[in-house]
Write a structure and sequence with these properties.
The complex is a heterodimer of chains A (596) and B (389). Chain A has 596 residues and is an alpha/beta fold. Chain A folds into 4 domains: 75 residues, Ubiquitin-like (UB roll) (Roll); 86 residues, Alpha-Beta Plaits (2-Layer Sandwich), CATH 3.30.70; 133 residues, Rossmann fold (3-Layer(aba) Sandwich); 217 residues, 3-Layer(aba) Sandwich (Fe-only Hydrogenase (Larger Subunit), Chain L, domain 3). Chain A is built from 18 helices and 18 strands. In chain A, the strands form 5 sheets. In chain A, strands 2-1-5-3-4 form a 5-stranded mixed beta sheet, with helices on both faces. In chain A, strands 12-11-14-15 form a 4-stranded parallel beta sheet, with helices on both faces. A 4-stranded mixed beta sheet of chain A has the order 13-18-17-16. The longest helix of chain B has 18 residues. Classes of the chains: A alpha/beta (596), B alpha/beta (389). The interface between A and B is large, with 38 and 36 residues.
Chain lengths: 596, 389
């Protein structure tokens, strides 16, 4: 954008904005809201829904304000008769094509089309109902995402999300004219295609065409079954997102209230995924050091750089697109799955429960976790390790269904065991967080000293840039790790799979020389996950990240290896990191998948 | 109102008085690009694809853009129902098309040109490619650094829309782009591009051959020159005719009608329907009803309901589907007239549909959706009884 200023009038009010500004942005500056549907701040401009049309005086055609840049002397009317009539027609046309039985829709009350229809007082039945004439399909094949074409308005936000943010293109436009639809490769079911289940499309779908597969009823049933002991784990990013559904502004930390609410909902034990995040650091940190030792001292062929494995969308992406790099993935299960495996073994033993009566529920900012829980590899307890995965949104729904006045709740603490955690664990919820947590522990193992950053805040790995890199010089090693003396540990971080793709290409080309790479499938990391509250944008993700780091700073313990329950589990049960028991319960393997 | 009597001319297909390569070397390359562009502007030539944008200005704007790479593209995706004149031009005088593109390339400073050929015209390829190879060689001989290639479309009507054509040519799904930017600024591969219809390019070589003044003697103030018409429907002499612009519809019907003409659809399915009572008042040209060449005559045996239904079915299928007004609007107009015909909706519903068509005219993303109101409203207004009963 240049420095040149453009002068124009919007609704007869003069305004001056930089060249390149769109009419939509200029109107916003004057506090005129123009309705949009296909527009999304995170995505390229499509200009296809035509609901943001405005009148440019002297131009026969209405202009899509999201797509047209301002020009000098322009006179724009955002609310003329022509504009209102055209917008109303657009909404009525969309409704005629749409299955508008709103009370049956999961997105009822959180649907952009519905609110526009209310705003414009449209006559839903003015045009002929096309929805009934079409043979729409609802694809429920995926564990994570339901694709309901009958509610699709063809805005292509999902298509752009999948291509531009995620580099996956599982969804694309097929056919033309009246047949035009959003489709997968040759219309294969979602379960069979390259979809990583990240749910970023779900976060950006303005209607109910793409939603998570919900397991709320199953969880209610388990809670109400007196023979079952229901444990629930909550992922780091849930506590800084949940508030948005229940009346708070983005960035509110509601950890204590959330724990209280979960207890009120009737869960038998409210535990923390952060506990297994700390455990992941112990296992993954040790794995990294072991790989480095193998490569540097034993001179053995070792897959480096090692890559994190916490994000199941990222794992499936890698299995589809870079199967040659599967050995580079850490063998550690994600914290959710470590928790699940321990819930029906270690936890059940401690609480003297029969694991077959333990129902393990997780609350995740993620839709891919639903798929992950159903992977055949994830049954090392002898049962399905995690029975039901709910998104942050589904938990919000349950709290609403239970009639709990969330904002008035007192705080509670997590139960024990597997409820204690550290600041290192909570930052798993932000891009760069796993890296930071791992460095806090690994550096200390190797040197016996804390990482050389003020307040343990490793700021070079933080931030929202798509791909970041940093290096840390290792000096003053303890004798066991003296072979690392003077070495420079090079790390890289990417979030959003399109960024991951760039990084993987560089790894494959040999142009990247890192030791350790952290990848999170979703923009911003888990705080921007596909199961988080809708809407999402850069500003909201920034606020959530600030909340995550504030949560970290507020924790009494901020290094995973200092977590007393972690020390306890190694002492009582696991033995040592990468030990036999760990191998059995906490580690996994990956499978190559097709490219489409 | 200035009108001309119907007059057949033979300039486009004439091969005796015009050797394209000779015109290039003698009349074009000997002069400065700006002089040629000014001639084209002065000639009043407007695009022959139907939209009628002044050709010289298009060239001037593209020349004015700073870019190392520029393109000349010939739109040969002749998909408008009832139009078949570009096919004839490409069959009969392909070298004139190439030479027109070469003039443009010389004027704007382009080194690459593409002909986007309608998929259904692929049978022309062997002959076309042979002529093209000869022509590309001749360009080398006369030292003009410009090469033309042919690309085939795949049958989508929308790809005749210039920005959708670029998308298709770039290997993507054929969908109209947002404008601005216009092709003169960012067209094919995001570079400044001149895209003209087949006949437009031929007309530029004709102007360079006969001179601006002789060209300006043809036609009217707003519609200079002659034009090739594709005449079809209820006519005893269907075919391709080159006529001077500026005649009335009445004149045209007297020449081509079967004595019982009740309506002429000017400009194809996306054009206007002119009923008998208006034949005398309307000029075929940019001051009246513009046309890319399609002239369909209907006599009193034809049901205008069927004609309209046929057009709407065509558009409901050929909309690219991306923008709401066009994708859904086309289906609603089609189902709407069917519902009125079958008594499922009252006749007054036609008024709602007309309002919708008017919204589409100003709200659709590209010319396809915008132009649907032309046939819809002109047929509904003039043949309401046929639609309802």
């Amino acid at each position: 954008m240049s420095n040149k200023m453009i002068n124009l009038k919007i609704n007869n009010i003069p305004v001056s904005v930089p060249e390149g500004t769109t009419i939509l942005e200029a109107a916003k500056k004057l506090n005129f809201r123009i309705p949009t549907l296909c527009y999304h701040e995170d995505l390229s401009i499509a200009g296809n829904c035509r609901v943001c049309l405005v009148e440019q005086v002297g131009n026969r055609l209405l202009q899509a304000s999201c797509a047209v840049p301002v020009s000098d002397g322009m006179e724009i009317l955002t609310n003329s008769t022509k504009v209102r009539q055209a917008r109303k027609h657009v909404i009525e046309l969309l409704l005629s094509e749409h299955r508008a039985d709103c009370t049956e829709c999961y997105k009822n009350g959180n649907c952009e089309l519905q609110s526009l229809a209310n705003e414009y007082g449209v006559n839903q039945h003015i045009f002929i109902d096309l929805n009934r004439k079409k043979n729409y399909t609802i694809d429920r094949s995926s564990y994570s995402i339901i694709k309901d074409d009958s509610r699709c308005i063809r805005c292509q936000r999902c298509v752009r999300t999948c291509e531009e943010l995620q580099g996956v293109s599982a969804l694309a436009v097929a056919y033309k004219g009246e047949q035009m639809k959003i489709s997968t490769f040759f219309e294969h079911p979602m379960f069979e295609v390259i979809c990583t289940n990240c749910g970023q499309c779900v976060n950006r779908c303005p209607t109910g065409a793409l939603i998570e597969k919900t397991y709320v009823d199953e969880v209610w049933d388990a809670i109400n079954d007196p023979t079952k002991h229901v444990v629930v784990q909550t992922a780091p990013a849930v506590r800084i997102g949940l508030g948005e559904i229940l009346g708070y502004e983005p960035g509110e930390r509601v950890t204590g209230k959330m724990v209280t609410a979960l207890k009120l909902l009737g869960f038998d034990s409210v535990l923390d995924t952060d506990f297994t995040a700390d455990l992941t650091i112990m296992e993954e940190g040790t794995e990294l050091l072991t790989r480095l030792k193998k490569a540097l001292v034993d001179k053995q062929k070792t897959a480096l750089p090692m890559m994190t494995s916490c994000s199941p969308g990222w794992i499936k992406f890698q299995e589809h697109l870079f199967p040659n790099l599967l050995d580079n993935l850490s063998t550690c299960k994600s914290p959710q799955q470590m928790f699940g495996a321990l819930a029906k073994t270690y936890y059940a033993e401690k609480r003297k429960l029969d694991p077959k009566n333990v129902v393990s529920v997780s609350i995740m900012p993620c839709t891919a976790k639903k798929f992950e829980a159903n992977r055949p590899e994830m049954r090392s307890s002898g049962y399905q390790d995690v029975d039901y995965v709910l998104t942050t949104r589904e938990l919000g729904l349950m709290i609403k269904q239970a009639g709990i006045d969330f904002m008035k709740l007192p705080d509670s603490n997590y139960d024990s065991v597997m409820g204690a955690s550290t600041g290192a664990a909570v930052i798993f919820g932000a891009t760069g967080g796993v890296m930071e947590a791992a460095l806090r522990t690994a550096y200390e193992i190797v040197t016996g000293r804390e990482v050389p950053f003020k307040n343990l805040n490793i700021t070079p790995v933080r931030g929202m840039e798509g791909v970041r890199e940093a290096s840390i010089k290792i000096e003053g090693c303890v004798p066991d790790w003296s072979f690392l003396e003077g070495a420079e540990l090079k790390v890289a971080i990417a979030h959003g799979l399109a960024n991951a793709k760039k990084l993987m290409k560089a790894v494959n080309d040999g142009t990247a020389s890192y030791h350790f790479i952290e990848i999170m499938a979703c923009p911003g990391g888990c705080l921007g996950g596909g199961g988080q509250p809708i809407p999402t944008n850069k500003e909201i993700r920034k606020k959530r990240a600030e909340a995550i780091y504030a949560e970290d700073e507020g924790m009494p313990i901020r290094k995973s290896h200092d977590n007393p329950e972690i020390q306890l589990i190694y002492q009582d049960y696991l033995g040592k990191p990468l030990g036999h028991k760990s191998h059995e319960l906490l580690h996994t393997h990956y499978v190559p998948r097709k490219r489409f | 109102m200035e009108t001309k009597k119907l007059k057949k001319v033979d300039l486009i297909f004439d091969t005796t008085g015009c050797d394209p390569v000779n015109v290039l070397t003698k009349n074009v390359l000997t002069r400065k690009p700006d002089e040629i562009i000014n001639d084209i502007i002065d000639s009043g030539l407007k695009g022959r694809g139907g939209a009628g944008f002044p050709t010289g200005l298009k060239w001037k704007f593209t020349k004015g853009e700073k870019s190392d790479v520029k393109y000349v593209i010939c739109n040969a995706d002749e998909g408008e129902p009832g139009t078949f004149k570009d096919r004839e031009i490409l069959e009969k005088v392909p070298t004139k098309v190439f030479a027109g593109m070469a003039i443009c390339a010389y004027c704007i400073g382009a080194k690459e040109g593409y002909i986007y050929l309608r998929g259904e015209y692929n049978y022309l390829l062997p002959k076309l490619n042979k002529s093209l190879d000869d022509f590309n060689k001749k360009l080398k001989e006369i030292d003009l650094d410009f090469t033309i290639q042919i690309r085939s479309g795949s049958g989508a009507y929308i790809c005749g829309e210039e920005s959708a054509l670029f998308e298709s040519l770039e290997g993507k799904r054929g969908e109209a782009r947002n404008k601005p930017p216009y092709p003169t600024v960012a067209g094919f591969m995001g570079k400044p591009t001149v895209i003209n219809n087949v006949e437009t390019f031929v007309t530029t070589i004709m102007i360079c051959n006969i001179g601006v003044e002789k060209f300006k003697n043809l036609g009217t103030k707003d519609s200079r020159g002659s034009k090739v018409f594709s005449v079809s429907g209820d006519t005893p002499i269907a075919g391709i005719y080159e006529l001077e612009l500026g005649m009335t519809v009445d004149d045209f019907v007297k020449e081509f009608g079967d004595g019982d003409t009740k309506a002429v659809q000017v400009g194809g399915a996306s054009g206007h329907c002119i009923p008998r009572k208006k034949f005398n008042d309307i000029i075929i040209g940019f001051e009246g009803v513009p046309t890319g060449g399609s002239m369909m005559l209907f006599n009193s045996n034809r049901s205008m309901y069927n004609v309209l239904k046929n057009y709407l079915e065509f558009f409901a299928e050929e909309s690219c589907g991306q923008c709401t007004p066009c994708r859904v609007g086309c289906q609603q107009l089609l189902l709407g007239i069917e519902a009125v015909k079958h008594g499922e909706r009252p006749a007054s519903y036609l008024e709602e549909l007309k309002k919708l068509a008017l919204s589409m005219k100003i709200a659709a993303k590209c010319g396809l959706g915008q132009s649907l109101a032309n046939p819809f409203i002109s047929i509904i207004d003039n043949f309401k009884e046929e639609i309802i009963y």
